[in-house]
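ERR on first pass: missing label on line 2. Operator R.T. fixed the label and resubmitted. Corrected input:
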Amino acid sequence: MDPGAPIDPAFLSDLYEVGGDELVQDVIATFAASVPPRADALQRAAADGQAPQVAAAAHAIVSAAAMVGLVEVEMLARVLEDRARGGTLPPTHAPARLDRAVQEGVRLLQQVARQLRGGDGPPSGARP
Amino acid sequence: MTHGAAGPDREVILVAEDDPVTAKIVVYRLSRDAGMEVIHVADGEAALEAAAQRTLAAAILDIRLPGLDGLGVLARLRASVRHARLPIIMLTSLGTETDIIRGFELGADDYVVKPFSPAELVARLHRLLRRRRPPNPA
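pass 2 clean. output:
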């Protein structure tokens, strides 16, 4: 994996080896269906000043992102979770930045899936 | 929700995990790859209900479950004679060492930190299941 890359493609590669494209697509679809609503909920909770709800939403995003190798999303959400658990609301731009990273993450997952289907070997995970 | 075909020789594993992505990966590995019957629930109360209704071979509990959390489920299971020796693996996140220590104090057999290798989780589960089986007669 390239240092600083937003995704570690090894996670999807491992899934591909076990369950092929069907499993990879299923996992990506599950991520795309479950995580963006969490990012929306986090933005709303932050705007409403609800630190516990920010922490809960951020934690859910951390778990999902970590399991598919979305390093940047995981890191951004983890910072928000840690701060919110300490009772600190995120700066106003942070939830929106996480939301953009989540949307980009879905695109990156699909890109890695295409590379895996193409049989070009393990994707590099380089920043697009 | 139950995954994998039921059968007299198939071990039944309870997975309590509220993140759909993690649950999808774990359930796939256990049911399709390891040939186990998997009961997946997304909160602590449902985990206790499933444990009361089915004979389990093992349980995998996320610590941060909504409502009754994984540590609460663990404590309730260990308080019952039926589940006192049930192999239990806790799923946790980085930076939650106090949760891990609390889990061991409450009787967890093992823990795995997210992000984890699904293959490693299955290997740890098999190790625990082997320990609980009676030795083959010579």
